[in-house]
C-alpha cells in the first residue's frame, strides 16, 4: 500500500507518525484497520504497519470499545501491568493504563502503550526499532494512540 499524506494508515494512524517509526515510503499493513462501532464491540480495530520490503520496525495498533464497565478495564489494566512487571503510567489524563518496555523476545527492542481513553481500549506497540529509546517509543506510542482515537471518531461520523 502506498501511503497518502491525507489519509490515515489503515484508517487509524496519521501517516507522519508512522513515518517517524518505519520511515518514508510504501508500507505493508495487515489487519482490518478501522471497522464499525458495532464490529469493535466484538473485536478491536487493528493494524500492523511495517515497511513494504518486510524490514523493521513495526507498529501495531489495536483499538476497541469498552463493552464492560470502565472500572472493569481499569482493574484489568492494573493487573496486566503488575503481571508484566510494569508500572501504571496513566492514572487520569490521557487515560488510565501503563507502558511496558521489551528488551527480549518478539518485541525487542520495543515499548507498548496500553490505555483506557473514554470508552475505548487502545494498545500500541512499536518494536524492532533499532537505536530507539524507551522514551522515544513511549512518546510515539502516546501520539499514535491519540491519533487512532481521533481518526476512529472521525471514521464513526462517516
Describe the structure.
- This protein is α+β, with helices and mostly antiparallel strands and 158 residues long.
- It is built from four helices and seven strands; from the N terminus they run αβαββαββββα.
- A seven-stranded antiparallel β-sheet has the order 1-2-3-7-6-5-4, with helices on both faces.
- A hairpin with a 7-residue loop joins β5 and β6.
- The model has no long low-confidence stretch (mean pLDDT 91).
Quick check: average pLDDT? 91
What is the CA-CA span between the terminal residues? Answer: 23 Å
Proportion of beta-strand residues? 25-35%
Level-2 CATH architecture: 3-Layer(aba) Sandwich
Radius of gyration: 15 Å
Low-pLDDT residue intervals, each spanning 5 or more residues: none
Which CATH class applies here? Alpha Beta
Specify the overall morphology: globular
Can you give keywords for this protein?
single chain; 158 residues; alpha+beta; Protein Transport Mog1p, Chain A; 7-stranded antiparallel β-sheet; 4 helices; 7 strands; 32% helix; 31% strand; globular
Amino acid at each position: 500500500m502506498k501511503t497518502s499524506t491525507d489519509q490515515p494508515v489503515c484508517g487509524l494512524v496519521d501517516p507522519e507518525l508512522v513515518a517517524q517509526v518505519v520511515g518514508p515510503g510504501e508500507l505493508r499493513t495487515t489487519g482490518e484497520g478501522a471497522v464499525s462501532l458495532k464490529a469493535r464491540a466484538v473485536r478491536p480495530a487493528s493494524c500492523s504497519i511495517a515497511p513494504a520490503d518486510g524490514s523493521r520496525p513495526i507498529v501495531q495498533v489495536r483499538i476497541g470499545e469498552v463493552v464492560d464497565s470502565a472500572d472493569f478495564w481499569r482493574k484489568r489494566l492494573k493487573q496486566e501491568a503488575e503481571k508484566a512487571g510494569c508500572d501504571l503510567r496513566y492514572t487520569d489524563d490521557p487515560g488510565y493504563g501503563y507502558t511496558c518496555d521489551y528488551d527480549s523476545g518478539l518485541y525487542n527492542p520495543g515499548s507498548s502503550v496500553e490505555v483506557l481513553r473514554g470508552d475505548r481500549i487502545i494498545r500500541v506497540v512499536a518494536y524492532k526499532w533499532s537505536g530507539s529509546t524507551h522514551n522515544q517509543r513511549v512518546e510515539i506510542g502516546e501520539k499514535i494512540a491519540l491519533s487512532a482515537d481521533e481518526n476512529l471518531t472521525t471514521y464513526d461520523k462517516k
